[in-house]
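Thread: quick sanity check before group meeting

JM: Hey all, I'm pulling together slides for Thursday and realized we never actually wrote out the predicted structure for the chain we discussed last week. Dropping the sequence here so it's in one place. If anyone has concerns about the input, flag it before I start.
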Amino acid sequence: MLKRCAGFDWNAGTIDKNWTKHNVSPSEYEQIFFNHPLMIHGDEQHSQTEKRFYALGKTDLKRPLFIVFTLRGHLIRAISSRDMSR
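JM (edit): ok, ran it. Output follows.
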């Protein structure tokens, strides 16, 4: 699924929300897709209007993040991010 992706799709609201609420920068969000381990699962509960996914991964500085995204064409559309917790 991710092999078709050519980049990321951001909007100002998502960038601001992720930074203001959770101190996660766009670059940290993107980093987890290039680091291992990376776990991706479908988010059936929140997929009413479009298919959503969540991912668990680590930034380059080993910060564990939980992120939510969808796919728009060949782009990963950022929805949400925060520190991983139980």
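AS: nice. The first helix runs from residue 12 to 22. The longest strand covers residues 64-72.
JM: adding both to the slides.
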